Amino acid sequence: MHNQLTGLLRIDVPVIGAPMAKASEADLCAAVAKAGGLGLIGAGYMDPAKLTQVYQASVQQLEGIDEVHRAVGVGLLNYSCSQELLQAAIELKPRAIWLSFGDWDSLAMPIKKAGIIIICQVQHLEQVEPALKAGADVIVGQSSESGGHGASPASLLSFIPELMDHVEKLCQKLSIQPTVPVVAAGGITDARQMAASFALGAAGVVLGTRLNATYESVYPEAKKQALVKAGSGASSHPSTIRTTLYDELSVMAWPPAVDGNCLRNELTAQYSSQTPLQDAVKQQVKEEHDKATADNTVEKLVIWSGSSVGLITSIEHAEDIVNNLVRDTKLILQQNAQFAKPKVLGQSS
Question: What global pTM score does this model have?
Answer without folding.
Answer: 0.94
